[in-house]
Amino acid sequence: MKKIEHIGIAVKDLEEANTTYAALLGAENYKTETVESEGVSTSFFKIGESKIELVAATNENSPVAKFIAKRGEGIHHMAFAVDDIEAEIKRLEAKGFQLISKEPKKGADNKLVAFLHPKSSNGVLVELCQEAPARPS
């Protein structure tokens, strides 16, 4: 693992949270994006080398909607940048970590992502992130 890529924060209202975090961080978000496969809309803020990802559910069946219903708004996940997500999945699985998905999928911010189940990482949802390969033109 190379670094903390971002911290994901589950929010009920993305627009309201954008206003709050812009005031808190003294910077506007640089990107918003919807990830249909996860049922979320996201907003990213960059602070130095770190990023904050605000995540709001786009439907009531989204994992984020279920998270907020159970725990309320707050820190949802910790994401780590990796060079080779498939190798990292294999390494962590061999170490006994439980994966939510054993295959990387397209995530927000041009990333391939995979998640570790919080039961195997002291209650923290861990996201692995690799820059998605450039598509040929």
From TrEMBL:
Residue stretches in coiled coil: none
InterPro entries listed in its UniProt record: Glyas_Bleomycin-R_OHBP_Dase, MeMalonyl-CoA_epimerase, MMCE/EMCE_epimerase, VOC_core
Domain annotation VOC: ranges: 3-131
Gene Ontology molecular function: methylmalonyl-CoA epimerase activity
Pfam family, one: Glyoxalase_4
EC identifiers of the protein: 5.1.99.1
Annotated keywords: Isomerase, Metal-binding
Family note: Belongs to the methylmalonyl-CoA epimerase family.
The protein's name in its UniProt record: Methylmalonyl-CoA epimerase
Phylogenetic classification of the source organism: Bacteria, Pseudomonadati, Bacteroidota, Flavobacteriia, Flavobacteriales
